[in-house]
Amino acid sequence: VPVLVVSQGGPKAHLKRFHNRGVKWLHVVASPGHAQKAEEAGVDAVVAVGGDAGGHPAPDEVSAMVMVRAVVKAVRLPVVAAGGVADGAGVAAMLALGAEAVQLGTRFLMTPEANVHAAYKQAVRVAGIADTTLIGRGRLPVRGLKNAFSAEVELAERSGMAEEELKLLIARSTLKMAAFDGDIAQGKVEAGQSAGLIDDIVPAGEVVENLMCEFAEARSRLVRLD
Ligand SMILES: Cc1cc2nc3c(=O)[nH]c(=O)nc-3n(C[C@H](O)[C@H](O)[C@H](O)COP(=O)(O)O)c2cc1C
Predict the structure, then answer these.
(1) 92 CB contacts (<8 Å, ≥6 apart)?
(2) What per-residue string of b and e applies to 173-211 under the rule 16 or more CB within 10 Å gives b?
(3) Chain segment 27-46, per-residue pLDDT in tens
(4) Given pLDDT bands bounded at 50, 70 and 90, which one contains residue 58?
(5) How remote is the CA of residue 22 from the centroid of ligand 1, in Å?
(6) Using one digit for the tens of pLDDT, what is the confidence trace for 124-150?
(7) Which residue has the higher pLDDT, 137 or 173?
(8) Which of 47, 56, 197 has most ligand 1 atoms within 8 Å of its beta carbon, as the pocket-test mutant?
(9) DSSP 76
(10) Percentage with pLDDT > 70 across the chain
(11) Disulfide: which of 15, 58, 161, 211 matches 30 by Cβ 3.0-4.6 Å?
């Protein structure tokens, strides 16, 4: 494995072992402070994730637009931007902020190659930009589509459900239920706000070609501003 992307936890325990074998280590961070710690530990690059991202986003909900800029200013390492990007215009925006590359999650979920249930993809396809929510604020939050399960959790949080009971409620639902069994009402349909920018399912290769064309368009639009 030539490159690792590592998230959730510090890099110190295992970094040396992988560097000794020539493996590059990209560390996922959700704050400028974490990025600086990862830089001090010696990682090769950081992935700066914003609160708009699907899956486990920045827990303090800072958008990728602000997070990426703050991380770029905080470290000298190459920064990969993650969160809220679904097309080449978004890629151009992140590179303009100083990122060297962009990581897209939700966009690649919407490809025939992605091994998730058709009902999951259909729900992401019709979702708008405001149709996701964060479940588990103050713990390890997950961003996914609003559904019956997320509504139940939000109601429980608002009504002050006891911590232990809430934990059990949140653990009742899994990504697997949505992704493999197609239970998009009770499962965790993990997706970012960028779901609202995606309305097709196209092969991953085509996604990449489209990204390149859209990026070139965005770039020439900016150049015309000169
Ligand atoms: C279904 C799904 C599962 C994810 N699982 C993980 C994960 O296990 N670990 C992780 O670091 N990021 C995970 N992510 C986040 C992505 O790696 C990426 O940072 C994020 O999707 C970028 O934001 P976007 O969804 O707006 O493109 C996941 C994202 C999605 C959509």
Answers:
(1) 215, 218, 219, 222
(2) bebebbbeebbbbbbbbbbbbbbbbbeebeeeeebeeeb
(3) 999 999 999 999 999 999 99
(4) confident
(5) 26
(6) 999 999 999 999 888 889 999 999 999
(7) 173
(8) 56
(9) S
(10) 100
(11) 58
- Token pair in block for residue 8: 């959730």
- The length of the chain, given as a count of residues: 226
Of all protein residues, whose CA lies closest to atom 5 belonging to ligand 1?
55
DSSP code, position 55: B
Which atom of ligand 1 is found nearest the CA of 53? 23
Whole-number pLDDT of residue 109: 97
Q: Which atom of ligand 1 is nearest to the CA of 54?
A: 25
Nearest CA owner, ligand 1 atom 13: 55
Q: For residue 9, which amino acid is it?
A: G
Which residues line the pocket of ligand 1, CB cutoff 6 A?
7, 28, 49, 52-56, 82-85, 103-107, 109, 190-192, 194
Cα(50)–Cα(65) distance, integer angstroms: 7
Name every residue whose Cβ is closer than 8 Å to that of residue 184 and which is 6 or more positions away in sequence: 117, 119, 120, 123, 145, 147, 178
* 14-28, 60-74, 153-167, 193-207: segment of lowest average pLDDT: 153-167
pTM score, whole prediction: 0.95
DSSP state letter for 203: -
Residue 103, C-beta contacts closer than 8 angstroms, at least 6 positions apart: 5, 47, 80, 81, 82
Q: What would the pLDDT profile of 192-225 be if each residue is shown by its tens digit?
A: 999 999 999 999 999 999 999 999 999 999 999 9
User: For a substitution probing ligand 1, which of 7, 68, 120 has the most ligand atoms within 8 Å of its CB?
Assistant: 7
